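Tokens in:
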């Protein structure tokens, strides 16, 4: 979670946060911003793994955390229904996938959720 928040700091430094706007929905700038922060968190994990600093189970814990906080899962738990038009962070699958993309490649260029045609 800390790495995700650091990802938001990187977005602020790069000026990416200005692209997001305040709209909600499955393909909104808000979701794209959050998924990019997940991808940046994956890059941090990649770097940590390269330095042999990850412990056994750390990657699985990170992916489980990403799965646990997807809009779809949280809405289903809280309200019993899923409303993609109100998403602000992305689905569990998207959050895991973008984190894993950052982890697998370690490249910021691969985290451009704003250029991605689909999330």
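Residues out:
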């Amino acid at each position: 979670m800390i790495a995700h928040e650091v990802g938001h700091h990187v977005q602020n430094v790069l000026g990416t946060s200005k692209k997001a706007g305040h709209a909600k929905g499955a393909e909104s700038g808000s979701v794209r911003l959050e998924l990019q922060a997940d991808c940046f968190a994956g890059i941090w994990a990649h770097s940590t793994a390269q330095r042999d600093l990850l412990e056994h189970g750390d990657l699985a814990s990170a992916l489980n955390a990403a799965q646990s906080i997807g809009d779809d899962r949280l809405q289903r738990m809280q309200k019993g229904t899923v409303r993609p038009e109100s998403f602000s962070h992305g689905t569990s699958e998207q959050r895991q996938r973008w984190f894993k993309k950052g982890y697998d490649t370690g490249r910021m260029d691969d985290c451009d959720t704003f250029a991605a045609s689909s999330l």
